[in-house]
Protein backbone atom coordinates (compact mmCIF):
# COMPACT_ATOMS: atom_id res chain seq x y z
CA UNK A 1 0.00 0.00 0.00
CA UNK A 2 0.99 3.63 -0.17
CA UNK A 3 2.58 3.73 3.26
CA UNK A 4 5.02 0.94 2.58
CA UNK A 5 5.77 2.52 -0.77
CA UNK A 6 6.67 5.68 1.05
CA UNK A 7 8.45 4.14 3.97
CA UNK A 8 9.79 0.96 2.41
CA UNK A 9 13.31 2.19 1.84
CA UNK A 10 15.66 2.98 4.63
CA UNK A 11 16.03 6.70 4.79
CA UNK A 12 18.60 8.87 6.44
CA UNK A 13 17.45 11.30 9.12
CA UNK A 14 17.62 15.03 8.42
CA UNK A 15 21.18 16.17 9.06
CA UNK A 16 22.00 18.55 11.89
CA UNK A 17 23.42 21.12 9.47
CA UNK A 18 20.27 21.04 7.30
CA UNK A 19 18.11 21.28 10.41
CA UNK A 20 19.99 24.39 11.55
CA UNK A 21 19.80 25.99 8.11
CA UNK A 22 16.03 25.51 7.92
CA UNK A 23 15.58 26.78 11.45
CA UNK A 24 17.53 29.99 10.85
CA UNK A 25 15.86 30.46 7.47
CA UNK A 26 12.44 30.36 9.11
CA UNK A 27 13.51 32.66 11.88
CA UNK A 28 15.10 35.14 9.46
CA UNK A 29 11.86 35.28 7.51
CA UNK A 30 9.75 36.03 10.57
CA UNK A 31 12.21 38.60 11.90
CA UNK A 32 12.91 40.44 8.65
CA UNK A 33 11.94 44.11 8.41
CA UNK A 34 9.77 43.39 5.39
CA UNK A 35 7.79 40.67 7.21
CA UNK A 36 7.32 42.84 10.29
CA UNK A 37 6.05 45.70 8.11
CA UNK A 38 3.56 43.35 6.45
CA UNK A 39 2.44 42.07 9.85
CA UNK A 40 1.71 45.51 11.23
CA UNK A 41 0.00 46.64 8.02
CA UNK A 42 -1.95 43.41 7.89
CA UNK A 43 -3.19 43.63 11.45
CA UNK A 44 -4.59 47.08 10.69
CA UNK A 45 -6.38 45.83 7.58
CA UNK A 46 -7.76 42.67 9.19
CA UNK A 47 -9.11 44.45 12.25
CA UNK A 48 -11.92 45.72 10.01
CA UNK A 49 -14.96 43.52 9.19
CA UNK A 50 -14.40 40.98 6.40
CA UNK A 51 -16.46 42.78 3.76
CA UNK A 52 -14.34 45.85 4.32
CA UNK A 53 -10.90 44.25 4.39
CA UNK A 54 -11.84 42.16 1.36
CA UNK A 55 -12.39 45.37 -0.57
CA UNK A 56 -9.20 46.93 0.71
CA UNK A 57 -7.25 43.82 -0.24
CA UNK A 58 -8.66 43.77 -3.76
CA UNK A 59 -7.67 47.36 -4.35
CA UNK A 60 -4.39 47.22 -2.48
CA UNK A 61 -1.34 48.23 -4.48
CA UNK A 62 1.50 45.90 -3.68
CA UNK A 63 5.01 45.91 -5.05
CA UNK A 64 4.56 42.88 -7.32
CA UNK A 65 5.03 43.49 -11.04
CA UNK A 66 3.04 40.73 -12.74
CA UNK A 67 -0.30 39.15 -11.82
CA UNK A 68 1.24 36.15 -10.06
CA UNK A 69 3.56 38.31 -7.95
CA UNK A 70 0.71 40.53 -6.83
CA UNK A 71 -1.36 37.47 -6.03
CA UNK A 72 1.47 35.89 -4.02
CA UNK A 73 2.02 39.05 -2.00
CA UNK A 74 -1.66 39.25 -1.11
CA UNK A 75 -1.62 35.60 -0.06
CA UNK A 76 1.38 36.35 2.12
CA UNK A 77 -0.50 39.20 3.76
CA UNK A 78 -3.47 36.91 4.43
CA UNK A 79 -1.31 34.16 5.92
CA UNK A 80 0.50 36.65 8.14
CA UNK A 81 -2.93 37.92 9.17
CA UNK A 82 -3.71 34.42 10.46
CA UNK A 83 -0.55 34.53 12.54
CA UNK A 84 -0.70 37.86 14.30
CA UNK A 85 -2.51 36.64 17.39
CA UNK A 86 0.04 33.83 17.81
CA UNK A 87 3.08 35.85 16.71
CA UNK A 88 5.16 35.63 19.91
CA UNK A 89 4.39 31.95 20.31
CA UNK A 90 5.49 31.22 16.75
CA UNK A 91 8.82 33.04 17.17
CA UNK A 92 9.43 31.38 20.55
CA UNK A 93 8.48 28.07 18.99
CA UNK A 94 10.99 28.27 16.14
CA UNK A 95 13.73 29.38 18.51
CA UNK A 96 13.13 26.58 20.98
CA UNK A 97 13.25 23.72 18.48
CA UNK A 98 16.28 21.53 19.07
CA UNK A 99 17.67 18.83 16.80
CA UNK A 100 15.98 15.46 16.62
CA UNK A 101 17.14 12.56 14.50
CA UNK A 102 14.10 11.91 12.29
CA UNK A 103 13.57 11.13 8.61
CA UNK A 104 11.34 13.06 6.22
CA UNK A 105 8.97 10.06 5.97
CA UNK A 106 8.64 9.83 9.74
CA UNK A 107 7.79 13.51 9.91
CA UNK A 108 5.25 13.10 7.13
CA UNK A 109 3.71 10.12 8.92
CA UNK A 110 3.23 12.18 12.10
CA UNK A 111 1.48 14.86 10.06
CA UNK A 112 -0.89 12.32 8.51
CA UNK A 113 -1.74 11.05 11.99
CA UNK A 114 -2.46 14.60 13.07
CA UNK A 115 -4.76 15.09 10.09
CA UNK A 116 -6.66 11.89 10.93
CA UNK A 117 -7.05 12.87 14.57
CA UNK A 118 -8.29 16.29 13.60
CA UNK A 119 -10.87 14.83 11.25
CA UNK A 120 -12.21 12.64 14.03
CA UNK A 121 -12.29 15.14 16.85
CA UNK A 122 -12.65 18.54 15.32
CA UNK A 123 -13.03 20.95 18.15
CA UNK A 124 -15.79 23.38 17.30
CA UNK A 125 -14.81 25.59 20.21
CA UNK A 126 -11.32 25.93 18.85
CA UNK A 127 -12.66 27.16 15.53
CA UNK A 128 -15.06 29.54 17.24
CA UNK A 129 -12.14 31.04 19.14
CA UNK A 130 -10.48 31.69 15.84
CA UNK A 131 -13.38 33.02 13.78
CA UNK A 132 -11.23 35.87 12.49
CA UNK A 133 -8.61 33.39 11.32
CA UNK A 134 -11.30 31.16 9.85
CA UNK A 135 -12.68 34.06 7.81
CA UNK A 136 -9.24 34.88 6.52
CA UNK A 137 -8.58 31.25 5.60
CA UNK A 138 -11.93 30.98 3.83
CA UNK A 139 -11.07 34.01 1.78
CA UNK A 140 -7.65 32.57 0.99
CA UNK A 141 -9.15 29.20 0.00
CA UNK A 142 -11.47 30.93 -2.47
CA UNK A 143 -8.58 32.91 -3.89
CA UNK A 144 -6.51 29.77 -4.32
CA UNK A 145 -9.25 27.78 -6.06
CA UNK A 146 -7.67 27.79 -9.50
CA UNK A 147 -4.17 28.77 -8.51
CA UNK A 148 -3.35 26.38 -5.71
CA UNK A 149 0.17 25.79 -7.03
CA UNK A 150 1.03 29.38 -6.12
CA UNK A 151 0.87 28.48 -2.44
CA UNK A 152 4.22 26.78 -3.06
CA UNK A 153 5.76 30.13 -3.89
CA UNK A 154 5.46 31.24 -0.28
CA UNK A 155 8.12 30.54 2.36
CA UNK A 156 7.68 27.01 3.79
CA UNK A 157 7.85 28.37 7.35
CA UNK A 158 5.01 30.80 6.70
CA UNK A 159 2.56 28.28 5.21
CA UNK A 160 3.36 25.80 7.98
CA UNK A 161 2.98 28.30 10.80
CA UNK A 162 -0.10 30.05 9.44
CA UNK A 163 -2.41 27.23 8.31
CA UNK A 164 -4.00 25.39 11.26
CA UNK A 165 -4.67 21.67 10.95
CA UNK A 166 -8.44 22.22 11.37
CA UNK A 167 -8.53 24.18 8.13
CA UNK A 168 -9.35 22.24 4.92
CA UNK A 169 -6.39 24.05 3.41
CA UNK A 170 -4.08 22.03 5.65
CA UNK A 171 -5.32 18.74 4.22
CA UNK A 172 -5.03 20.05 0.71
CA UNK A 173 -1.50 21.30 1.27
CA UNK A 174 -0.49 17.96 2.81
CA UNK A 175 -2.11 16.22 -0.16
CA UNK A 176 0.09 18.20 -2.56
CA UNK A 177 3.12 17.20 -0.52
CA UNK A 178 2.06 13.54 -0.67
CA UNK A 179 1.86 13.73 -4.48
CA UNK A 180 5.45 14.97 -4.50
CA UNK A 181 6.64 12.31 -2.07
CA UNK A 182 5.15 9.45 -4.05
CA UNK A 183 7.52 8.44 -6.79
CA UNK A 184 4.92 6.68 -8.95
CA UNK A 185 2.74 9.66 -9.72
CA UNK A 186 3.44 11.60 -12.84
CA UNK A 187 3.26 14.95 -11.15
CA UNK A 188 5.68 17.71 -12.00
CA UNK A 189 8.28 17.42 -9.31
CA UNK A 190 9.13 20.47 -7.27
CA UNK A 191 12.71 19.39 -6.61
CA UNK A 192 15.47 17.73 -8.56
CA UNK A 193 16.15 14.85 -6.16
CA UNK A 194 16.93 11.44 -7.64
CA UNK A 195 13.60 9.91 -8.66
CA UNK A 196 14.76 6.33 -8.17
CA UNK A 197 16.23 6.88 -4.73
CA UNK A 198 12.90 8.18 -3.46
CA UNK A 199 14.66 10.26 -0.87
CA UNK A 200 14.45 13.95 -0.19
CA UNK A 201 17.11 15.25 2.13
CA UNK A 202 17.75 18.94 1.89
CA UNK A 203 15.45 20.02 -0.93
CA UNK A 204 12.46 22.35 -0.80
CA UNK A 205 10.03 19.46 -0.39
CA UNK A 206 11.93 18.14 2.64
CA UNK A 207 11.98 21.65 4.05
CA UNK A 208 8.21 22.00 3.64
CA UNK A 209 7.60 18.72 5.47
CA UNK A 210 10.07 19.75 8.19
CA UNK A 211 8.37 23.13 8.69
CA UNK A 212 4.95 21.49 9.03
CA UNK A 213 6.40 18.98 11.46
CA UNK A 214 8.10 21.64 13.55
CA UNK A 215 5.10 23.96 13.81
CA UNK A 216 2.37 21.35 14.19
CA UNK A 217 4.01 18.49 16.06
CA UNK A 218 7.24 19.68 17.62
CA UNK A 219 6.43 23.06 19.16
CA UNK A 220 2.65 22.93 18.89
CA UNK A 221 2.41 26.60 17.97
CA UNK A 222 -1.08 26.01 16.67
CA UNK A 223 -2.60 25.00 19.97
CA UNK A 224 -4.90 27.52 21.52
CA UNK A 225 -4.33 28.05 25.20
ZN1 LIG B 1 13.60 16.49 -3.12
**Given the structure, what is the number of helices?**
12
Helix content: 55-70%
Each distinct ligand: zinc ion
Give the H and E element order: HHHHHHHHHHHH
Query: N-to-C terminal Cα separation, in Å?
Result: 38 Å
Low-confidence stretches: none
Largest sheet: none
The amount of beta strand, in percent, is under 5%
Q: How many beta-strand runs?
A: 0
Please describe the topology of this protein.
Blueprint: H1 2-7, H2 16-31, H3 33-46, H4 50-59, H5 67-83, H6 87-96, H7 104-120, H8 124-129, H9 131-144, H10 156-162, H11 168-181, H12 204-218
Helix pairs in contact: 3-5, 5-9, 5-10, 7-11, 7-12, 10-12
Zinc ion is lined by residues 191, 193, 200, 203, 205-206.
GO biological process, one term: interstrand cross-link repair
GO cellular component, one term: Fanconi anaemia nuclear complex
Give an account of the 3D structure.
The chain is mostly helical and 225 residues long. It has one domain. It has helices at 2-7, 16-31, 33-46, 50-59, 67-83, 87-96, 104-120, 124-129, 131-144, 156-162, 168-181, 204-218. Helix 5 packs across helix 10 (156-162). It is globular and about 50 Å long. The termini are far apart. Bound molecules: zinc ion. Zinc ion (ZN) is lined by residues 191, 193, 200, 203, 205-206.
Amino acid sequence: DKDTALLGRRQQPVELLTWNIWQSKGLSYFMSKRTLRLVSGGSLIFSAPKAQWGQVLRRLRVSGVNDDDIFIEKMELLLLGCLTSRWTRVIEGVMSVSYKSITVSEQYEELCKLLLQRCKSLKQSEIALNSKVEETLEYLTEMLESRFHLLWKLPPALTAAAIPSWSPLFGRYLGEIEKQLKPDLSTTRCCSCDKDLNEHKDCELAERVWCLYVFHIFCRCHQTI
